[in-house]
Amino acid sequence: MPDSARSRSRPQIRQLPPETVNRIAAGEVIERPAAVVKELVENALDAGAEHIQVRIEQGGLGRILVEDDGCGLSAAEMPLALQRHATSKLVPGPDGQVDLLNIHTMGFRGEALPSIASVSRLTLASRAADGHAAELVVSAGQMEGPRPVAFTGRGLTGTRIEVRDLFHATPARLKFMKSERAETMAVSDVVKRLAMSRPDVGFTLESNGRSVLRAAPMGTEPAERLARLGAIMGRDFRDNAVEIDAEREGVRLSGFAGLPTLNRGNGQMQFLFVNGRPVKDRMLTGVLRAAYQDFLARDRHPLAALFVDLDPEFVDVNVHPAKTEVRFRDPANVRGLLIGALRHALAAAGHRASTTVAGQALGKVTSEPVNASIFQASTLWADRSVPSRPPLAGPGVSSMSGPDWRPADSAPTARVEAPAPPSPADDFPLGVARAQLHETYVVAQTRDGIVIVDQHAAHERLVYEKMKGQMREHGVRRQALLIPDIVDLGEDDAARLLARTDELLELGLEIEPFGGGSVCVRATPALFGEMDVPGLLQDLCDDLAEYEEGLALSERFEEVMGNMACRSSVRAGRRLTAEEMNALLRQMEATPYSGQCNHGRPTYVELKLADIERLFGRR
User: Fold this and answer.
1) What confidence tier does 209 reach under pLDDT thresholds 50, 70, 90?
2) Domain 218-348 fold
3) CATH no., domain 396-614
4) Residue 275 CA to chain centroid, in angstroms?
5) Are the beta carbons of 315 and 327 closer than 8 angstroms?
6) What is the reported pTM?
């Protein structure tokens, strides 16, 4: 051994001071003001609060105040609540042991209050059922009190916690804080997520004296939960969400998901709650992508708020110090339940498209000046007394009318009517066809408005769904490779892929192990023709690693069948007869998902009569 190494002093093991330990814990749990708000509000929920008020200043760095009407703390409990790993949420069993998997509360780590107090100036005031209010003050880990105080809470019991000058004891942390606006938005996001999870609790959030959120307490029935979600996620979600309610093998899934035509450019409006706890789980991203893959382009994202409830023993909520991640004992069961329930709910929605489609259409119409001269409706009317003329056949409109209908001689072509159909428009959700515009759009009359259908997009969806049904009925045909393809993936990726051998075989991809992290591909789906097999396998491995779902193969099927459906569907520019147009409408009504094309665009726009009257100033 060299003399320099022999002379080097051996490092000594030391016990860290309590305040240093608390600051280290604070670094794990309290990373920004939003984390403080999350911990304090979750404590209020565990205390049985019915109303929770949150006030912040300077994004929470200056001041955070959380007040609730929960069960409160006694003066004797206050000092203990500021000790590390002290909690009322874990009760030892008969053998004196605590079951850390049987968690029924929002939190239990017992680190939040001492961690917060170690990096701020904290004031804790509370009143328990004995009616005696007390206050305790902690500044940079130094405790004063408890002492009697006047407590003017909402209820007979409750707690008020004020946090000032967050991170003043660790100024280096302040350098990593974002702008006041960004920190305020993070706090707002935390409170809104908790408010979504508990519609039975009232929430108030104020920032610098300005109201950000006011949510009155309501019930937990689906309609009331949707009302709370709509108040936070927006009215469009409330009006265009389908209910989710399913259960399998002890796991219950509830909540709401938006129609495919209601989508966003990112996944910020996707929320997952596990046993009432807001969590961020990458599995949700894969689940929603798999469930909506037939309806949305890859750069568009659906809206959803999903609630998973299961026995606490089957989910680990202590994976992350901030309790924002969970780990399921049987993730495949949860994933299968989510995908199946979402697809079933979307199928049940049938041809329904979101109401935002009509709003966007009206917005585009009213955003441009309208030349009133083209709306000479008073000069265009049906005159049965005039001898018949050939049906209208100009390039703009193809007539659905019979030979006894004609436009006025000098009138511009602005409306074409058909004689009364055998069945009234009231009988059909999408109405009865009246005209075809530019050999591309079918115009139908409903009971209280009109429907405009993109004939190519609508028929493309119908053909696509028919092809999927035939594939499900007859299975996926495989084409054997003359020379098996050996693909080197690496040990981990090959193991992930080979674990799904049976599932991939059902989709026409036949693989087997070849050793050394390689797989042998013996057959591929005949539908694909010649393809990049190594590229497909690598995409599958990436999806399995990130989402635990083999999305690449399904998306490849979607792409091929979508192209085939596009080629075999009714083209824009083809003139349709009245029977063909009405047949198209009836097929749309009977076909799931027919309200949107494969990329999430609407196949039809519905305008209510009231909307049209407002467009013309009649309302």
Assistant:
1) very high
2) Ribosomal Protein S5; domain 2 (3.30.230)
3) 3.30.1370.100
4) 17
5) yes
6) 0.71
